[in-house]
Amino acid sequence: MAESSNISVTGIGPVKPEQAAPLFLMRDPVIFPYSLTPLLVDEENLAALRQTMERDRLLAIFPELPGDEELGVLPLQVTLKLFNYREKRRSGVGILVRVVKELNFPDGSVRILVRGLKRIFCHAIETAGGVPSARYVICNESASENEDTENKARQKSAVAAFQELAGAMPGIPEELQVAVLNAESPGRLADLISDALNLNYAEKILLLSMTDVRRRFEVLAILMNRELEVLKLGMKIQSEVHQAMSQQQREFFLREQLRTIQQELGEDSRNPDIIEIEERLESTELPPHVLEVVRKELSRLEVIPQAAPEYHIAYTYINWLLDLPWCIFTEDRLDCAEAEKVLDADHYGLEDVKQRILEFLAVLQLKPDDERRAPILCLVGPPGVGKTSLGQSIARAMNRNFIRVSLGGVRDEAEIRGHRRTYVGALPGRIIQNLKKAGSGNPVFMLDEIDKLASDFRGDPASALLEVLDPAQNNSFNDHYLEVDYDLSKVFFIATANLLETIPGPLQDRMEIIRLPGYTSFEKREIARRYLVGRQVKANGLKAKQVRFQLGAVDELIDHYTREAGVRELERCIGQVCRRIARRIVEGKIAPDETVSVTPAFVQELLGARKFLMDEADAKLGPGCATGMAWTSCGGVILPVEVISLPGKGGLKLTGSLGKVMQESAEAAFSLVRAHAAGWGIGPEFFAEHDFHIHVPDGATPKDGPSAGVTITMALVSHLKNEALRPRLAMTGEITLRGRVTAVGGIREKVIAALRAGIDTVMLPEENRKDALELPEEVKSKLEFHFVSDFAEAAKVAFSPARKRAKAKAPAPGANRKEKKR
Predict the structure, then answer these.
(1) Angle CA(216)–CA(218)–CA(222) in degrees, nearest 5?
(2) Cα–Cα–Cα angle for 202, 207, 212, nearest 5°?
(3) Between 202 and 146, whose confidence is greater?
């Protein structure tokens, strides 16, 4: 038996004989006396239904109580009779219903139609044969309540309020209104109105629980007044909206009448915007699919009022479609010889890029117009080597328009694909915007700093570029704003980047990568002589006859005032020299008609002390020292390595801000040397009694990479044999534990740096022979190259015969140790 609550509810009346009926468990809807309600019978209540259909068709329903939060919003505070059954709170006051009809549907569901009879008070819950039944007491209304004058007055007031509600609520049927007017008792009237009103679940539970008719009328008055206020407010809002709509319709009819009158008078009343669009449409050549979209939007624009926001959206969209160069193309200059002159006049060097452009022009000459596809290049190189300016030269050489878009820091996909037109202030993406600016469908389109794209919650712009930079897909590029395919296959895309590693792999795969290495000193000198000096002299208000730069002064700026792979800082230094000369002319220290000869000493006088010292190879390296070569973002440098041994326990110490890869390379070199030490007469006891210290000077600069392996190996051998390496020798290459010398990168920059530092002999891996063939002739002619494939060949090149003969005068430290042992 379920636990019964002892909280009292007014209006129950005296205790009467108990009766029993099967318990029907449900929550919604709340059933009132005299009302007909359809119910869905679930599995839980099916047994109770079968039992009552065999007997008197009576069911006891005690609704589930809502939560405390839902009860807390009731219009007044009350105390409800309740009990707990199956872990749910149920109202102590329920409803006794009779099953009027049972309906069985083909899907197996069962529905019943019940009529509410009387309020009942739950006394106990019993279970017999698996079917719960409720023992209840009927809560009858007393005759005094029906005859009470106050209740009759409340009844008339409730009828009047309900009629007012019925007039404002078209959903209330006339039969219900008649039933309310003819209600026999105040209790029945209150129940009819409670069932008819659109109240929430907690409010209906409250009305069902109130057995006192007077209290029920009080709550109904509050709820009906609330519903009336809500209906009046809704009618007011509806009236205002209807009035606004009527005003718009009135304006529309007046405009139509005005247009008809103007037509009868022979006056042109058409929208000037539409007239302008039609004139442009006649003079603009558009693809068929675009023309169809424009005509559709134009017919829609004619029926939209000019004051409506949709009018401006449609008008702007049509203008964008008409402004784009769908069928406008510039004529390419296909003369390769003329294009080569233009490229050579603008840029010195960069032979790989120039050759690729000339190849493209040659292909264009051989292919018909409808099969021409522009390449997609990616120029990768350090800052200042001329990647961006090269795009302008390519456009000038091909006689095409040039457009540049900087992608640095772009993190929104809509910057590439555009915004949907549903957004306020929507625009096409940067691709479409700049094609409109270019005015032709085949410009040279530079995507600058493509390696600095970002991504966040707004999307990944690099992924959006996959379609733009794919020759197999960009002939139908779809911008979110246009929603019309645009052909980008004729556009010559050139991307620039400083680092290739930060560009996603799928994007790299769609582009042809062309690397632009740093300039050699000779190339920088020629660039300064041909372009930079004249440009800076003019930019700083000087005349060509007033300033004359000697080549030595240019070399002074290159070697001691700049350290970069490009020429940007060199141009700044030349501009600084010109500005200081201009100041001296203005101050009267130099005559205006005097020609100033800029010498290395004059550069130092104008710019102050040298900022950088040249890397100079030591011509007298002692035993235990070797010169390597390294690559940095500013070009190449030489990398000295020093080795010493001291009494210890066979440890190896590495210093010089070495990275993990370089440390592992040094350990491999040390193991290789220990494995071959017996061939030089050095026993294992020497390694057991000594610690070795390998140091790479310029310790504040981080260093990493495997290319110093052969250099560290030769330094160790030189120390153990107490024999100096060949003078002015620089080397690079990775070494393995088996003694193989393998290929490394950055050969061009490394060799140029070695030449600048005074090196005359370079030792490279055999696998890098192909890279040496691509070096400039002025570099190859001044250096002696040796290519080695293993440790033995490297040692043979590193030690000259003269040094080997001097071995007897200065015995190796390991040999001395061995003699002492004997």
Answers:
(1) 115
(2) 145
(3) 202
Give all strands (DSSP E) within 652-796, no chain letters: 652-655, 690-695, 729-731, 734-735, 741-742, 761-765, 784-788
Q: What angle separates helix 272-283 from helix 288-302, to the nearest 10 degrees? A: 170
Whole-angstrom distance, CA of residue 335 vs CA of residue 361: 8
pLDDT band at 1 (very low <50, low <70, confident <90, very high): very low
Q: What is the largest CA-CA distance in the chain?
A: 140
Section 444-466 average pLDDT: 81
What pLDDT does 644 receive?
94
What angle, rounded to 10 degrees, do the helices at 709-721 and 813-821 form? Answer: 40
Q: Which residues contact 419 (CB under 8 A, 6 or more apart)?
A: 425, 426, 427, 480, 481
Omega before 38 cis (within 30°)? no
What is the rounded CA–CA span in Å between residue 577 and residue 346? 23
Which residues, listed in sequence order, are joined to residue 36 by a DSSP beta bridge? 115
How far apart, in whole angstroms, are the C-alpha atoms of residue 261 and residue 50? 78
Question: Does 4 have pLDDT greater than 60?
Answer: no
- d(CA 343, CA 358) in angstroms, rounded, equals 10
CA distance 610 to 753: 19
Q: What is the pTM of this model?
A: 0.58
- Active site residue ranges: 707, 750
The one-letter code for the residue type at 321 is: L
CA distances from 406 to 233, 381, 565 (A): 56, 16, 22
Residue found by looking up tokens 């006649």 in the block: 282
Q: Is the pLDDT higher at 73 or at 121?
A: 121
Is the pLDDT score of 600 beyond 60? yes
| Cα dist from 640 to 622, 637, 672, 698, 784, whole Å | 12, 10, 20, 9, 19
User: What pLDDT is stored for residue 384 in this prediction?
Assistant: 82
DSSP string covering 338-385: HHHHHHHHH-SS-HHHHHHHHHHHHHHHHS-GGG----EEEEE--TTS
Give the integer Cα–Cα distance in Å for 402 and 238: 58
- Quote the DSSP letter at residue 303: T
> What does the pLDDT read at residue 3?
37
Cα angle for residues 177, 181, 184 (degrees, 5° grid): 125
- Give residue for tokens 């406008």: 328
Instruction: Look at residue 11 in the predicted model and tell me its pLDDT.
Output: 36
Per the structure block, which two tokens stand in for 272? Answer: 């000037």
Amino acid at 56: D
